Amino acid sequence: MSTAAPIRLGLKENLAQFSLLVAVNALVGAMVGQEQTVLPLMAEAEFGLTGYTFLFTYVLAFGLAKAVTNYFAGTWSDRFGRKPVLIAGWLLALPVPLLLIWAPAWGWVVAANVLLGVSQGLTWSTTVIMKIDLVGPRQRGLAMGLNEAAGYGAVAAASALAGYLAGEYGLRPVPFLVGLAYAVLGIAVTVLAVRETRGHARFETANHTGPAPAETLTDREVFKRTTLTDPALSSASQAGLVNNLNFGLSWGLFPLLFATADLTVPQIGLLVALYPAVWGAGQLITGGLSDRLGRKRLIATGMLTQAAALAGIALADDFTAWAAATALLGAGTAMVYPTLLAAIGDVAHPSWRARSVGVYRLWRDSGYAFGAIVGGVVADLWDLRTAVWAAVLLSLASGLAVAFRMPETHPRDQRQTQEIR
User: Fold this and answer.
1) 314-367: pLDDT as tens digits
2) Residue 49: closest CA among 61, 39, 36, 59
3) What is the DSSP string of 181-200?
4) Residue 264, helix vs strand vs coil
5) Could you count the other beta carbons within 10 Å of the beta carbon of residue 385?
6) Measured on CA atoms in the order 415, 416, 420, 421, is the torsion positive or negative?
7) Would you say residue 419 has pLDDT above 60?
8) pLDDT over 80 at 380, yes or no
9) Is the dihedral of CA 19, 179, 51, 70 positive or negative?
10) pTM for this structure?
11) At what angle do helices 353-381 and 384-405 cross, to 10 degrees?
12) Which of the residue ranges 40-44, 126-130, 215-219 would you say has the lowest mean pLDDT?
């Protein structure tokens, strides 16, 4: 009679499953990239939308749906297991490309993005939780760097590919047929090869070397700590929100801003892809760097770098200058993105960590919606560049708030592996 292999924590110890989950998250990111370049152009060319606020409704719909679903992904993964939640997310992704191909009206596009947001909330949140389960406390930053690098590297690659295909074959249906292939492959890999990791979290809880939680926290208490009362968790939540506000703004606004310089569709696709490409590749460095240098300085510096980069985008008016500024924006985001997730993992106890990740990602991905609102309203009232300047001010304020309020969360020796509040 065979027995199950003993549970071990660590990147090396779980390399096969960890690598598989990295590949799965790349497919998750590609589902976003398939539409990032194409939809803003499709809105004007095929649906005649000219008001920026109305045009950005698809980003708003995506952001709200993903944000809310992130919260439930954390609680459901604790209740039902990680793998069932991941499978459910992929099944919801399957109709998205078909809705975009067949959409006779803009409302179909908005509905597709609601579905995509729910799918992304379930799939991306769960892959994050599963990787944190597998690696344990020592290499959390590196793990999140690899996860987010795969996801946003795939956003960039899929965005550039969609821009190329749109230029060669038109805005529909070819770019979205590739998206359909991403979804089918994601379902197959998850069902056939991904294994449940909830046991690893339970193992870490049983062998946790830090202080045990004084009591079992309710969902409401986890929400309150992550949102308001814990200075590390709440600082991470606000920085995550502003970070994704910038991404949401770029998703809906940058293609239109770049088009004012009479750039071609493939050129716009390259510029749109450059931001997540640098962001994704940079996380291969910054995630592990945060394990050595700590979390706070990378987060604060990254938010201030984003503010400088956005100012460059607002001032630029040609391909070369925009390319330099969007690359800098990607570098600033790379400093922040995996480090925020690692900080959540540092502070939250294994017994309520999945729920805290869900709350953090609720606020972080609300940034998509705020980006759509800020970008759309300011652009309609003034212009596209003024909307970018609004993001500059918000990023600057966020970076200063982290610098003055957030404590360092990374453990400095083996006696302090977690900070529990």
Assistant:
1) 999 999 999 999 999 999 999 999 899 889 988 988 888 889 988 998 999 898
2) 39
3) HHHHHHHHHHHHH----HHH
4) coil
5) 17
6) positive
7) no
8) yes
9) negative
10) 0.79
11) 150
12) 215-219
Say whether the peptide bond before residue 173 is cis (omega within 30 degrees of 0): yes
| Best CA proximity match to 43, nearest among 309, 252, 257 | 252
2-6, 29-33, 89-93, 379-383, range with the lowest pLDDT: 2-6
52-75, pLDDT tens digit by residue? Answer: 777 778 888 888 898 899 889 988
Q: Where are the domains of the chain?
A: 15-201+219-405
- How many residues are listed for the chain in this entry? 421
Q: Are 283 and 337 in contact (CB under 8 A)?
A: yes
Q: Which CATH number fits domain 15-201+219-405: 3.40.50.720, 3.20.20.30, 1.20.1250.20, 1.25.40.20?
A: 1.20.1250.20
> What are the tokens at 176?
């979205």
Six token digits for residue 125 = 């949140």
Distances from the Cα of 186 to the Cα of 59, 116, 218, angstroms: 23, 14, 33
| Cα dist from 284 to 135, 275, 321, whole Å | 16, 15, 25
**If you ran DSSP here, which 8-state letter would residue 212 be given?**
P
H helix runs in 11-81, sequence order: 15-36, 38-45, 52-55, 57-80
For residue 237, what pLDDT is reported? 97
* Pair of tokens at residue 399: 């970076």
**What is the predicted pLDDT for the residue at 415?**
38
